[in-house]
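Blackboard transcription, Thursday session:
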Amino acid sequence: MAIPKVVPGEPVIKLALLDDVLNLARANSLWPMTFGLACCAIEMMAAGASRFDLDRFGAGVFRPSPRQSDLMIVAGTISKKMAPAIQMLWDQMPNPKWCIAMGNCAISGGPFEYEGQYAIVPGADLIVPVDIYVPGCPPRPEGLIQGFLALEDKITKGENRNILRRFRRTGRKS
Amino acid sequence: MGKKELILQKLREMLPEGAVIQHDAYTSGVAFVARVPVSGIVEAAEVCDRGGAYLESMTGLDFEDTAEIVYHMNVYEPKSRFSLRVLFPHDEKIPTLSGIFSSAVWLEREVREFLGFDFLDHPDPRNLLLPEDADFHPLRKTFGKIAAYRKREEIYA
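(Written on the board underneath:)
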């Protein structure tokens, strides 16, 4: 009898179907953390409010505690003084968790990154693992919503597998 | 007579002739400027405090030949902001005003970290905005690319 190879870090028993179902649930009920750093947070609030309405995607439940949330949106400039606090918030979030870097500052430092700058961390990916980058200065709420949809597709491993996706791209053969 | 005029009168009595310059038109944003020596700043601040003024903001300037701190004071009356200016050598320690105005603690922390001016007997000399381990002073003119590092009289004609 062939003994199946055990890869370190991989679960011995894989519940593929259950994982798929759980991922569907996770992708369509993302709970972001109430946490903003700069002007991008204003657009994030607009995305959560009635006009753009993140609740359409199940993602409008902004949690006031990192222990209840599974998505961190780094919305704004990360100053060196703030970076340890962001790392701590990320560490306090329970797995599975995801991170969106919103805006140019969170992606690469934006306009504040220049030679000899002393104040900011140029990029959220230097301190936390980032899943989705949403460019813009600041990005429109539509941009953030597209980031959310991209993250949902990432969690369910493909748009076609996300059978609960509220909006589908048109003109695309699946 | 308003509170500002009373303070002005007391500062005139305290300071030498010509140290207080009045700007009646208020074009520079202050009603008068008082040039105070380092030894007299605590006394001048006490005069302002007793006269009903509060410390609005503090800023530091770095020149080639001297350092300067500007204290902006204000009274809850129209057009009554005024400033106290202190000139001192870069390595001199400035008496803290935190015993008189509690808000001076944070303002002096900011001036200390950004310009490297030391305050005598400051109750909380930690960094306010810069990282805790920062050992540089970004608003010093010698920080980074050096440009416009001039003497005071070259800038204030």
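Lecturer's comment: Residues 38 and 76 of chain A are 4 Å apart (CA to CA).
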